[in-house]
Amino acid sequence: MIQKKWTSIAAVVIMLILMTFTHADQVAAFELPQSNSLAKAGRVSMPGELVVNYQLLQEDSQPVDPHTPLKIGETYLVSMRYQLKEYDNNQEIYDHNIIFSFNEGLDYLADSFYIGSNDLPATHLSDEILASIMTDFPNEMDLPFTGVLSGSMEVYYYFKVKVGNITGNVDLPGLFTGETSDGTGGIQPLSPITLSLAETNFFIAPDLQMLLTVSNPEAQVGDILTYSLTAENSGGKVGASVLKNSLPAGVEYLPNTTKINETLVDDSAWDGPEFAYSFTDIPGNEKVTLSYQVKVTGENQPSIAQNMSLEGVTSLAQQPFTVASNSVTTTIIHVPVLSSVTAYFKDEEGKTLKPSITLTGESGTKYEIDKEITGYQLKEVIGDDKGIFTDLPKEVTYLYEKIETAPIEQETNNTHEEQPQKKEQKNAQLPKTGELEPNQVLLFTGMISLFLFSLLFDLRMKRSK
């Protein structure tokens, strides 16, 4: 009954003290209740042994699942409760301090500190009051308590923290120090109690962003493309992981073109079109780059799509994860490949029957050749006669044989027999070669005489002059 009485009195005193905190300009320490009957000097009591409950909670005060990663930017509660282990006996703890050191990536959230006890509601303490008590607030919390902790009194406080960039376990390390009785009426140091959240293995989830780019969004067959990947981890540390890629149809890898973080690496990570490169770990705030080159071979494809993935586990909780990059597409521009076919037309002896012809067209398209030659029929074809242009020029020779015709039979009727006879009669009427008619002789003689007379007359006229 006496114990419960003092507990109730202590609760009232703490309430009054805490209520004054919100109006005080400066506070030296958090004062626990103290009376003559609980004076720490000259009182024979047992050394105090504490039960400490130090937790990281959700904002709704629910426990955080240690298998679920914390997320950067989210807010959580740091909660601490402590009381005597055997509060129904004569244990006591006197002045004590609780120190917290905020590490990188876990920040105190302004105006979020509350304090109370099992008999008192939580009371908010402003940052101004906390700064008057703690010289290095908010980078470090050094919470001083004076008075006596005895009986069933439980003290608690909580405040909010915001998660930033943390590469390892989430922790807010602390230390509980103070004084306790020595069992003979004197005072002795309390064995320090280390405070840590690390045993719960809270961790930050990896936050990987993977951006893939390609050197050219358009390409022709035979062109070289460079793929570049940037994987940036702005979250927790990544454990063993594998960067994977499978080349799509239409490209082939160019040997000795793979670079990791701008350093050329061997091709052991490639197995044909498959790529797998292993990492031991990827720390938080770390960036990894990968680049490689391929040659475009896809003649019948309209485009080439490519993406990559990182498969692994978180460093601390060994939780599996897979992160995929964006997909990039390159359109294949098909340039027509022109080719030709030349046709020759010959007989069996190799004699040209008609001039050769040359046709030009796009590879893969059809063509037609006029093979008809009057009086000849096609006997043999030497070369490709499928009628389709190929990538390379080609020649085709067509060999012919002459078409044999039957002789025409002569008719024996009288009409046809008379015609040769009439022809012979006409021929008989014509003079033979060398034979001249008398009139023709006289005409020829007269012409010669006239020519001679004209010549003599001309000579005589010239002499007379």
From TrEMBL:
Domain of life: Bacteria
Keywords: Cell wall, Membrane, Peptidoglycan-anchor, Repeat, Secreted, Signal, Transmembrane, Transmembrane helix
Annotated Gram-positive cocci surface proteins LPxTG domain residues: 423-462
Transmembrane segments: 441-459
Gene3D superfamilies, per database record: 2.60.40.740, Putative peptidoglycan bound protein (lpxtg motif)
Domain MucBP residue range list: 341-401
DUF11 domain sequence ranges: 207-308
Bias type Basic and acidic residues, positions: 414-426
Secretion signal span: 1-24
Chain intervals for the UniProt region annotation (Disordered): 407-432
Name assigned to this protein: LPXTG-domain-containing protein cell wall anchor domain
Record organism: Enterococcus silesiacus
Taxonomic lineage of the native organism: Bacteria, Bacillati, Bacillota, Bacilli, Lactobacillales
